[in-house]
Amino acid sequence: MDPLFYLADTLIFIGIFSLLSLSLNLEFGLTGLGNFGKVAFFMAGAYAYTLLAHAAFPVYLCFLGGALVAGLIGLIITLPALRLREDYLAIVTLSFGEILRTIVKAEEGLAGGVRGISVPAVFHLGSSRADALANIALTLGCLALCFLLLQAVAHSPYGRVLRAIREDEVAVKALGKNPVSFKASALFIGSCIAGLAGGIFAQYLNFIDPTMFLPTVTFLVWMMLILGGAGNNWGALLGGVVVELMNRGTRIMKDFVALPVDPNNLQFIFFGLLVILVLIFRPQGILPEGPVKTAARKEAQEWISLL
């Protein structure tokens, strides 16, 4: 296999999962919302992109449509749960992920059911080096745009309100703000980014089926954010890079070392040990929010009090 193709594959998957990690950081790291159904919005974006591509829409409309469909589904599903305790949101999103996957498995007409569905590709990775580089540019370009957007959000007055909600929702209510509307908007934006990642994923692989969207995807994204550092977009990026490189490393290790266990099982052992060590010795993550957290809390309180 051409080393460029393997490098391209690694970079593309790093970009896709970093997008998911960034979207979860907006929801949980900044706003304190426990979304345990991240894979559902990832899947919604992938299938929406695929159906739009089969309908011969322009590729940019396919990506945009996939992101908007995932965002709207996230908004509709989670809005009722936002008025309840935080743990209800986790239960609702986790359950919805399995419900959506079951629906897709049963849908033979549009989604192909358990057999899956082919995806019209913009670039074919295996056909030429130019296509491989184009896939990298597409994925990392979308990642860069979303990162810049989320950095702007984090340092905006809107982002300060999100942090204030995370720190003390009662105080935010007392200051005349509506936490539900801010939470809903954060979930909408986060779900849109997850849907965009799903569209890139579908376009890249040229085929999707329900077995690609298991709950383990959600827990993998949570692992990225915990390791990298919740509340810090740079930490979310770092977590995506570290986990994906470890994932690839354990797969190729079998070619150089006789492993006593299956590589897939070995990576989960490594992930588990790494999470335990980080939670014990550095619970705030590799790149924590740090002093920004205190400053942001103070800024948020001052800004809200002026409104």
UniProtKB/TrEMBL annotation:
Its Gene Ontology cellular component terms are:
plasma membrane
Q: Using the record for this protein, list the coiled-coil segments as residue ranges, or answer none.
A: none
List where in the cell it is found: Cell membrane
Is-annotated flag, keyword Signal? no
User: Main location per UniProt?
Assistant: membrane
Q: Name one Pfam family in it.
A: BPD_transp_2
Q: How does it sit in the membrane?
A: Multi-pass membrane protein
Annotated GO molecular function terms are:
branched-chain amino acid transmembrane transporter activity
Q: Which key words are in the record?
A: Cell membrane, Membrane, Transmembrane, Transmembrane helix
Transmembrane spans: 6-24, 36-57, 63-82, 132-154, 186-207, 219-243, 263-281
Q: Does the record's keyword annotation contain Acyltransferase?
A: no
Top-rank taxon, per record: Bacteria
Q: What is this protein called?
A: Inner-membrane translocator
State the organism named in the record. Ammonifex degensii (strain DSM 10501 / KC4)
